[in-house]
Write a structure and sequence with these properties.
188 residues; alpha+beta; Glutaredoxin; 5-stranded mixed beta sheet; 4-stranded antiparallel beta sheet; 6 helices; 26% strand
């Protein structure tokens, strides 16, 4: 019985780690570092969502980041894969966070899989009724580097309205905890 509890705890609270079986479509850190394609233009990192919309992210001094058009919003980046059960489990909670803080926060889900076409991802969005932005482009791996080159998913980073890093979350976190952090951050 204790082994079952421990297994469930590890799956749901620690997430999918690098040591778990990877999808053949997932890039490793080694692949990322060997990539010769550049997605940076004019000091911006161009991010693309599943609908082809582009977002310009600029890294500022002091590790601050800004996304053009969202300068007055806090940013929550959620790094995920489509095969990760804890990532799927977070979707309704992130939907609720996006709705709760829609005036102050924008959520970007960052897909860490290669060769997932946008048609597949649009079906994924529809199936899970996702109400936030899903990024699906090779630039996602550059964004991963900016956010610390994480080793397990789900992984989230939260930035305040001035682009300053506020906190991060590893694994599946209770929605209430993230909500309290966002409220505390917005009061500063």
């Amino acid at each position: 019985m204790s082994k079952i509890f421990l297994s469930l705890f590890l799956i749901f609270f620690l997430g999918c780690s690098d040591s778990s079986k990877k999808s053949e479509n997932t890039l490793s850190t080694k692949d990322l570092n060997n990539s010769k394609k550049s997605v940076k233009k004019d000091n911006y990192l161009i991010l693309k969502d599943v609908y082809g919309e582009e977002f310009k992210l600029k890294k500022l001094p002091d590790s601050k980041i800004v996304i053009e058009g969202f300068e007055e919003k806090a940013l929550l980046f959620e790094f995920f894969t489509t095969w990760c059960p804890p990532c799927k489990g977070l979707i309704p909670h992130i939907n609720m966070l996006q709705k709760e803080f829609e005036d102050d926060l924008v959520v970007f889900a960052v897909l860490l899989e290669e060769n997932k076409d946008n048609e597949f991802m649009q079906e994924y969005i529809d199936n899970f009724e996702i109400n936030y932005i899903i990024l699906n482009d090779e630039s996602n791996f550059e964004l991963l580097k900016i956010n610390g080159n994480v080793k397990s998913i789900p992984y989230m980073t939260l930035y305040d309205k001035k682009g300053k890093f506020f906190t991060n979350y590893i694994g599946q976190m209770p929605q209430e905890m993230i909500s309290l952090d966002i409220k505390r951050m917005l009061k500063k």
